Amino acid sequence: MSDQTNVQERLINVEDRLGRLENLLVSINEKLEQTQQPTVAESEDTEKFQQWVTDYVSMRLQQLVPETCDHPAETPMHDGPFLDNTNVPCTEEVVHRVKRIPIPFVREMVVQRVAENARNAKIERVDIEFFEQAATF
Fold first, then answer.
1. Of 131, 134, 133, which is closest to residue 82 (Cα–Cα)?
2. How confident is the model at residue 22 (pLDDT cuts 50, 70, 90)?
3. Which sequence spans correspond to the domains of the chain?
4. What band does 31 get if pLDDT is binned at 50, 70 and 90?
5. What is the phi/psi pair of residue 89, to 5°?
6. From CA 83, how far away is CA 130, in angstroms rounded?
7. Phi/psi at 30 (nearest 5 deg)?
8. Which residues does residue 107 pair with via DSSP β-bridges, in sequence order?
9. Predicted model pTM
10. CA distance 39 to 115
């Protein structure tokens, strides 16, 4: 009989614990349901931040891997190589020199300056001597 009483007491204790656990879970669920919905200002800030992150990642990807990003349509290369993203013809040596510039935005600035100087000087094809003169700032 003592074994049966012991089992009954254990069963009552287990049921009591399960009841307290159930009450705890219900209260946690109620608190989760009562959490505040984000305000309009918070959601706008979140959208602005997401847009900034998207723009930043896009910019960094273009800097790191520019050859896989969208570029303006290139002029057909029927007359030899051209300076990057321009219609100014140049020699292979100039193309090689431009590719050696490691920082993309600096490379773009140099190319644009050389192209502008070549157009102003009415140079038909940019050679290495003209490139070195025109690329200096």
1. 131
2. very high
3. 1-34, 68-134
4. confident
5. -70, 150
6. 13
7. -65, -40
8. none
9. 0.43
10. 51
Distance separating alpha carbons of residues 131 and 107, to the nearest angstrom: 13
Cβ partners under 8 Å of residue 114, min gap 6: 83, 88, 126, 130, 131, 134, 135
Nearest CA-CA partner of 85 in 51, 111, 106:
111
Q: With contact defined as beta carbons under 8 Å apart, do 110 and 134 qualify?
A: no
Q: Which two tokens stand for residue 123?
A: 């140079």
Distance of CA 18 to the CA centre of its chain: 50
Q: What average pLDDT does range 4-27 have in this prediction?
A: 90
pLDDT tens column, 66-98? 665 565 555 454 567 888 888 899 999 999 999
Tell me the one-letter amino acid at 2. Answer: S
pLDDT computed for residue 44 by the predictor: 83
pLDDT at 114 over 90: yes
Please report, in angstroms and rounded to a whole number, the separation of the first and last CA atoms in the chain: 102
